[in-house]
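Late entry, evening session. Most of the bench is empty. Finally got around to the prediction I had been postponing all week. Sequence below, unchanged from the version circulated by S.P.
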Amino acid sequence: MLYGMILLPVAMGLFCAFTRGQQRRLRTAVLLTGQIVLLCLALYAALSGRDYATPVWHMTESLTFSLRLDGVGMLFCCLTAFCWLLTIPYASVYMPHEGGEPRFYAFLFSTEAAVMGAALAADGMTLYLFFELTTVLSAPLVLHQQHGKALLGASKYLYYSIGGAFLALFGLTVLQQHCATLAFVAGGSLLPGHDTPLVLAAVFCAMVGFGAKAGLYPLHNWLPSAHPAAPAPASALLSGIIAKCGVLAILRLLYFVVGPEAIRGTWVQTAALVLTTLTIALGSYMGCLEWGLKKRLAYSSISQISYVLLGIFLLTERGVMGGMLQLFFHALAKIAIFQAAGAIILLTGYTRIDQFRGLGRRMPLTMLCFTVVSLSLVGIPPFGGFWSKWYLATAALAAAPGALGYVIPAVLILSALLTAGYLAQPIISAFFPGRDCPEELLTPVDEPPAMMTSLVIFAALSGLLGFAPNVVLSLMEKLAACVL
């Protein structure tokens, strides 16, 4: 079962690699069928209640490879399979204009296999292996267009992510000597009396290293270069899912290897909260200054993903719940808003915020979806993003050390205001172009049904699940209880 959830995307990627660019219908049909099967496998495993695990393979005497499906893995696998499934019809419209479809799909689904592997990893070395694979396999997606900006974006992505992975490897190497095992155990397995300065430094290095993938300051600068360079289907998944492999790795490190009790109240927790709060503020501020559409959304991702890290670093059940809610709702909203940006770029050629004038009449469905998911990203009640930010703010007030208990909620409010500013600006320009707007800026554009289907579903879930959140809240509450 678990190997099948990894090998099926690999098979789909290999199939795409050997198809010709003109075989679009066959490729789309096979990908949709395979992805539906993968989603059904993930849902069956999640709903069956069984403890799925594979035998431990000893690569060396001390390094192992093993897979296991727990609550965290279930959430990540189901979310990944669902988001990849809805990306297929969108990409089937978008990618013919980009070219290189067989190569694009081959790396896209190979990356999915690596993400699934990271979610299913049962120990630190297995997680590290798949963490590195997500970088190596997703970098060609950033490089797809093969122009100067794509080369720069892919290079920075590789440098930051692999450099961060080396930091993480140092941390795991030290922890291997001070933990009973690197296998993931609820509460961690740090040996008694081993919470030494060296161990705390190793945890901090690993945390910052894994955080590079999630855009944690100071290793965040790859996102504004990589997102604008990648095709819209790739940049949407890069922000919504792939970057969150860093979040997953940090969650596993703190809660399942070291244990929250060893970190709570130390300088590591304080430093992590400071870096996260700084990243939230910095991303929101830089988003206000940027006029490139996808680059502004990249800065938004820096800020929004750090909300998830904030919940994890609070080391409380309520904080984890808020972080998991943010992970879920941000994935839906950010994939939708990047897909909306891609539709705008594809159908109009507009790449800047100051070109949005009249788009509400030219592309009404796209801009309506853009507006709905923007409300969720800002945290306007009762849209999905509101619930995650509410739990994070109240968790910070209750558990953040010292003055951070007041600074963090204040920064969250400031970030929400800045987010509202940089997302409301294009929306107002699109729907209220002014009476002097030239007629050519109001001419309707054909919005392809396949592209809109994906976009509408993501936007609808961002809105509707916020209005009726009980199922999601109950699920995340159970998940947080399992983590702690």
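Two things to note before I forget:
The mean pLDDT is 89.
The two ends are 27 Å apart (CA to CA).
Will write this up properly tomorrow.
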